[in-house]
Amino acid sequence: MSTDTAIPRSPDDITAEWLSAALTGDAPDPVRVDSVEVRPLGAGLTGSAYSVRARYAANPGGVPDHLVVKLASENHAIRERVSLGYRSEIAFYADVLDRVEIPTPACFHRSISDDGQTFALVLAHMDGHEQSDQIDGCTNEQAVHAVRALAALHGPLWCDPSLTSFTSTAMPLADEQTAYGLGEVTVMAAGITVDRLGDVLGPAHTEVLRRSAAAVGPWLLSRPERFALLHSDYRSDNLLFHAESSEVTVIDWQTLAVGLPARDLAYFLATSLVSEQRDALDRRLVEEYHRVLVDEYGITGYDVETCWEDYRLGLLQAVLVPTLGYAFADRTDRADAIMSTMLIRACEAIARHDALGLIDARP
């Protein structure tokens, strides 16, 4: 499907008729849905997700009866701003999923309008999994599973030449013009964020935030010899953990990018662990991520100390993504609480590991 009228714009459009057509696609044996029960699932800043219970009259492919349908925001201004993100998520399920090994929900349907402002995904609901809370953070066991899964995203396409021309991302591999252009936008976004949250962040964290935003241009150009496909928003709210085993499933691919792999790792550790927990665990978790890359994906010429330095440098990801997302999305009390928590943790990690010093030390 590629036309606006074929794609739901609201939960009222998630009907049995639409779901039947979406699940059938081009298959010769049609799926027939008798009825649907649709309920909101969380509250996204740039889109909406719904839990859908389907009753089938015919289900030749054995599609689960519990699904998730993701749609674009009902706010027109947000849809215009994040249409590239919608395209990125569709591209992940269409073009990337089979090339990586990171655990994701099964996808049964994907469609997007020609202007990129309306889309629909039908995914398996991960029953038995729970979303980790961004403010509370991950447990130690969950963190181990998360960094292993991240290696399963990066390892298969590590320095793959095809990524240098892969444009179906929110941000392709940066050149000087795009890096410094995004740096200017980040400075503006950081200013908006400080205006909103400065009293909560405090002067010390605000200074780190502003300095980090100002360094984004040269930072994006650092370590060009290493790159992989990035999730870019790899944090607790986008991870589903099995309630018993803590194994992880990863969702929300609207920030797909290409860049230094450890940016994802640093972003996760800086935003999804409380600071004391991160200080105690980050060295071990970086070593586990590196072990999986080497042992399971055969990455060579990449020693653990270089990985550690990449992690330190990558910590600026934890300023870049939250400020850009927060400054240009609708403001809510929950968003304020999440962003202030993430940015305080990020600024503490950047200061502790002298991430800005790594940028300053390079020509």
What distance lies between the first and last C-alpha atoms, to the nearest angstrom? 49 Å
What is the residue-averaged pLDDT?
93
Count the beta strands. 10
What's the tally of helices?
12
Placed side by side, the strands forming the largest sheet appear as 1-2-3-5-4
Number of domains: 2
Tell me what the CATH architecture of the largest domain is. Answer: Alpha-Beta Complex
What is the CATH C-level name of the largest domain?
Alpha Beta
State the CATH topology of the largest domain: Aminoglycoside 3'-phosphotransferase, Chain: A, domain 2
How much of the sequence lies in strands comes to 15-25%
The CATH superfamily of the largest domain turns out to be Aminoglycoside phosphotransferase (APH), C-terminal lobe
Which shape, going by the Cα principal axes?
Answer: globular
For the report, how would you describe the main beta sheet? 5 strands, antiparallel
Describe the protein's topology.
Elements: H1 16-24, E1 32-40, E2 47-58, E3 66-72, H2 76-81, H3 83-96, E4 107-112, E5 119-124, E6 129-131, H4 140-154, H5 176-214, H6 216-220, E7 228-230, E8 239-242, E9 248-250, E10 257-259, H7 262-272, H8 275-297, H9 304-314, H10 317-327, H11 333-352, H12 355-360
Antiparallel strand pairs: 1-2, 2-3, 3-5, 4-5, 6-8, 7-10, 8-9
Helix pairs in contact: 4-7, 4-8, 5-10, 5-11, 7-9, 7-11, 8-9, 10-11
